From TrEMBL:
It is found in: Cell membrane. This is Peptidase C83 domain-containing protein. Keywords: Amino-acid transport, Cell membrane, Membrane, Symport, Transmembrane, Transmembrane helix, Transport. InterPro entries: AA_transpt_TM (IPR013057), PCS_N (IPR007719). Pfam families: Aa_trans. It comes from the Eukaryota. It comes from Tagetes erecta (African marigold). PANTHER family: OS05G0424000 PROTEIN-RELATED. GO terms for biological process: amino acid transport; phytochelatin biosynthetic process; response to metal ion. Its main location: membrane. The chain crosses the membrane at residues 36-59, 65-86, 124-145, 165-182, 189-218, 280-301, 321-348, 383-403, 409-429, 441-466. GO terms for molecular function: glutathione gamma-glutamylcysteinyltransferase activity; metal ion binding; symporter activity. Residues 232-473 form the Peptidase C83 domain.
Length: 478
């Protein structure tokens, strides 16, 4: 009897042990459930920002020849370097090697040295800048809904002044709640919703542009874009060209969160193969929308294309459709904010756990039963620090509402190292490419060209930033 009881207990323990291991990956971490669909959704959410609606302005600065050519060039560069980065997720072998959970881990495993710190600075400064910029942009979309209704009922010449600050607070309150999602692995549903929203407002902007062209309201366009002496001065033409190239280059950059996205994928099929397919799907989808929205938008508005033809009121009617599109932009940015801040949250929390492993405040997880959800693990440090982060980014957005001008500069500092330099250097090191071989030379040329583009974009961003500072009035109602 005792032996039978012992055997039964042993079997139960073994079964429980097997069940426990079924919920873990090969390295003892929680089993990942990400798929091609969820990775594609994360990429589309990260890449297709509300900036897609400003591409008509970018094409207007470059013209019919250079505009689409620059769009296509950066789509190819982004996809190519993303495939190199995807192969670096595991090391030393891209399939059987050890996992690298963050971009910094990848650089540490393949390059090491001070380049790890350079990567961390470029990545996390960019993430902070993007979250502040999204707070501003989302509030602009919310304000556009209010103004759209005002213009509809009071006429297009009405002042319709609306403050964006209450909407920044609403956006921050939503982010405080969503920021309690424990990690990137629990974010798939939000990314899928955000990706659907990005398709919705991009399609609305595209449809309205097509309608304007079809009914014969197309505007004046040029092969070389805005004309010197007619639309702009020669100096403004140069600055705008720099800014347009920068806008397009950074509109494709999602390398900041690529490794974190790849770390959500199941271990089989191999993560690098799935990630390459997801990158192809994400970049291809993005490019189609970018070319259509940029080119058709330019055809509709010509050289006077607004910076954003939904929030900048390139269209006024039908007002209800403009309202819906701007709501979609706000919802998309709610999800995109989380895609960009979750890697930052994870990095800071891991560092704190390593620094103070004995602190119950930092390490303890408390179980709370939530209606319609079940067990939810609450960590007090996570609640306090993430809430504080969202509040601080919202305050910075309120104090410096022209912070979007900083994003071009921050992007210039992150696009080259994160999207181009590190993926290429890690591939050269991993594949042991000989110096001055054909492959080494053309990879270096690609890297240097992208460095020049980043520097050009940085110059244009600084000029735009100085112009914003000159006309800055704190807490002004628009």
């Amino acid at each position: 009897m005792g032996d039978a009881y012992t055997s039964a207990s042993t079997l139960e323990l073994a079964a429980a042990h097997d069940g426990f291991h079924k919920n873990l990956d090969d390295d003892g971490r929680e089993k990942r459930t990400g798929t091609f669909v969820t990775a594609s959704a994360h990429i589309i959410t990260a890449v297709i920002g509300s900036g897609v609606l400003s591409l008509a302005w970018a094409i207007a600065q470059l013209g019919w020849v250079a505009g689409p050519a620059v769009l296509m060039a950066f789509s190819f560069i982004t996809y190519f370097t993303s495939t190199l980065l995807a192969d670096s997720y595991r090391s030393p072998h891209p399939v059987s090697g050890n996992r690298n959970y963050t971009y910094m881990d990848v650089v540490r495993a393949n390059l090491g040295g001070k380049k790890v710190q350079l990567c961390g600075i470029a990545q996390y400064v960019n993430l902070v800048g993007v979250t502040i910029g999204y707070t501003i942009t989302a509030s602009i979309s919310m304000v556009a809904v209010k103004k759209s209704n005002c213009y509809h009922w009071e006429g297009h010449e009405a002042s319709c002044k609306v403050s964006k600050y209450p909407y920044m607070m609403i956006f921050a309150a939503i982010q405080i709640v969503l920021s309690q999602i424990p990690d990137f692995h629990k974010l798939s549903w939000l990314s899928i919703l955000a990706a659907v929203m990005s398709f919705a407002y991009s399609s609305i902007g595209l449809g309205l542009s097509i309608a304007k062209v079809v009914i014969g309201h197309a505007a004046h366009t040029n092969l070389t874009g805005v004309q010197v002496g007619i639309d702009v001065s020669a100096q403004d033409k140069v600055w705008r060209t720099f800014q347009a190239i920068g806008d397009i280059a950074f509109a494709y950059a999602y390398s900041t969160v690529l490794i974190e996205i790849q770390d959500t994928l199941k271990s089989y099929p191999p993560e690098n193969k799935v990630m390459k397919k997801a990158s192809l799907a994400g970049v291809s989808t993005t490019t189609i929308f970018y070319v259509l929205c940029g080119c058709v938008g330019y055809a509709a508005f010509g050289n006077e294309a607004p910076g954003n033809f939904l929030t900048g009121f390139g269209f006024y009617e039908p007002f209800w459709l403009i309202d819906f599109a701007n709501v979609c932009i706000a919802v998309h940015l709610i999800g995109a904010y989380q895609v960009f801040c979750q890697p930052l949250f994870g990095f800071f929390e891991i560092k704190c756990r390593e620094r103070w492993p004995q602190s119950r405040f930092i390490t303890a997880e408390h179980i709370v039963n939530l209606p319609f959800y079940g067990e939810y693990y609450v960590n007090m440090f996570r609640v306090v620090w993430r809430t504080a982060y969202v509040i601080v980014t919202a305050l910075i957005a309120m104090i410096f509402p022209f912070f979007n001008s900083f994003l071009g500069l921050i992007g210039a500092g992150s696009f080259y190292p994160l999207t181009v330099y590190f993926p290429i250097e890690m591939y050269i090191a991993r594949a042991k490419i000989q110096r001055f071989s054909f492959t080494w030379v053309w990879l270096k040329i690609l890297s240097w060209v992208c460095l020049v583009v980043s520097l050009v974009a940085a110059i244009g961003s600084v000029q735009g930033l100085l112009a914003d500072v000159k006309k800055y009035k704190p807490f002004q109602t628009e």
